[in-house]
Each structure stands twice: as C-alpha cells, then as structure tokens.
User: Fold this.
Amino acid sequence: MLRKVILSVLGVALIIGAFFFANYLIDNKNKPKPVVPKVVKTVLVDTVQNSLIPIVISANGNLTAKQRVELYSEVQGVFKTGSKLFKPGQKFNKGETLIRLDASEYYASVQSAKSNLYNSIAAIMPDLRLDFPNVYPKWQNYLNGFDLNKSTPQLPELSDEKENYFITGRGIVSTYYNVKNLEQRLSKYRISAPFTGILTEALVTEGTLVRSGQKLGEFINPSVYEMEVAVSKSFADVLKEGEKVSLTNLEKTKTYNGTVSRVNGSIDATTQTITVYVEVKHPDLKEGMYLEANLNAEKVENAIEIDRNLLLDSEEIYVVRDSLLDVISVKPAHFSDEKVVLKDVPNGTIILRKPVPGAYAGMQVKAAEINSSTVDSIQ
Assistant:
C-alpha cells in the first residue's frame, strides 16, 4: 500500500509541474521581440571644386654615369707600375696616366725607323742642292729640326711636280708615313684619363701581361649621372628636353633636381613605351642608385584628383545625396600609383573622402564636417 501512495504522489507532482511549465512557455511566446537600433555610419566627405590638375608621371630607374669609358688594350705588353694604383675607387685627373705598358722593345723599332727616315733625307741633300736649289733650304731646316727623341715633324710641303717626283721616287714619303704609323701605335702603350673621374672596375694588376683586345676596366665621371625611364607612349608629345624632374630615393628622405636631357625618337614595340633620359648632378649620388622620378607631363582642365580606391571597377564613384549613398559615372583622365584624375564631376557634388566598408547605393550615412571644401585637401 505504501508503494502505491508514493507513486500516486509523484504522478500528481509531475502533472502540476507540467502545467506550470506550459504556462511559462505560453507567457514568453507572447512577449514582443527587442527592436535592434539602426546604425547610421558617419562618413568623411568633400565638396567637388574642379580645377587645373597637373599630371605627374612616376617612373623608376637606376643611375648610370653619363660619361663612361670601357678600357681595352690595343697592344700587348707588361703592365708597368704607375704613380697611382690601378684599383677600383682610384681617382684620376684628366690627362693622367691610367695604364702604361712596357714598350721598350717597340720603342727601339720606332727609333730605328725614324733614324732611317733621317738618313734617307740626308742622302738626297747633295742632289737637292744641285738640281733644286730653291727648295734646298726648307729641307735643310727640316733636318736641323729633326729630333729622334720627339715626334717626327711633318714633311715640308712639296712646291712643284718635279720636286714631288724626286722626293716620292726616293721613298721619302712612304718612309715618313710608316714612321708616323709606328709612332701612333707606340702611343697606345699609354692610356690616359679622358676626363677627371674614378675607376669603377679594374681587371688587371701591375706586372700582368696584357694582350691585345683585353678589357682592362671601366672609368666613369662621377659628377654627372643619367637615369633611363620608360614612359607611356601617350605622353610622347608632351615630354620635351629641358623639362625639370624631381627625383627621390627609396626611403623618400632625399630629393634631387634633374632635367630631361634626351627623349628617344622611337617607341618600344613590345611595351609601347618611350625611353626618357633624366640628367642629375649631386655629390651624394652613386652609380647604380635606384631613384624615383616625377615628370610633369601635362595639365588637365576642369578635373579633380582622388584616391584610386574610391573609384569603382564600373568607373563610378559614391556621392552623398540627402544622407543616402548614390553612384555617378565619371571619366578617368590619368592613373598614378595612388591617385586618379577624374573629369565630368559637377561642381558642388558631395563625394566620399575615404572608402566606406560595405557601401552600397541607398545606404544611409551621416556626413562629417571637414574644414576644407577643395579637392586639394583630399588625402
């Protein structure tokens, strides 16, 4: 009997509990859902004021010396020690000897040829005195001024046909030009600096046997550099020689002033670009430095400049009308790395100053006040 009483009590308790739980669920179902407040984003805007926008072309490149000489040997000989070491970084003034090769053997052959020329002229002097007394004095003066230790002087001018036949027939003229040819080759045993500069490469050292045609090194003028940049062909008609160019280093910490020195007359068929050469001078510059050049190409009238990330792929931009976002079509005139120049944007149009995440046409926004109303303040 006790067991039946316990089971009856538990059954009644469960029925009462179920009744109260059902009422609780019914009461909660009828409660109103909480209203989520609508968030209105605050956006930075600007008012369009069209103006004259200069187009600046950015291009990168490496500096190369405007004056550069690759040194080659035209003769063979042993590299002799000079007053300065032939090492990279060594400075030489204009006219100083860069390289001197041992030419003692060849010098002896040149002196022998000069002596033969002197003897040939001396041998005809008696005949000149008898047959050509009027030209004898000039040839005598030539012999008197002949110095084996100096460059061979030019032969006296032949005054008439008979003198020409006589001198040529004795082989004087051919001997003279043979001597001059040997002297010219002798001068190639010494290479002098064509301008004041510095060695950037040295491939031989003192005591090395240098062979004909061997490259010896490179010599540059470190005071003037050029940078070669490729520019779109659309600017070929506006880029002119003498245009001022601003150049900056990679760190954007230094600025240099350059000038367009040359513009290539042909367009690269592969890249459809034109090559422009910018000349720049500064003591801090070194060959091989990487710089960025900003070239003033042209100016666009009635245009504005905004960040590229504000331009949609459909060539549209967002505008604010009655606290709602809308889009308008625009006409891009020029693209740079970070900016875009636009035309056909009416004055007074309120545009976004910064991109809005998740923006769409019809989105409700709140325009933030800014101090400047000109497009030049867009950042």
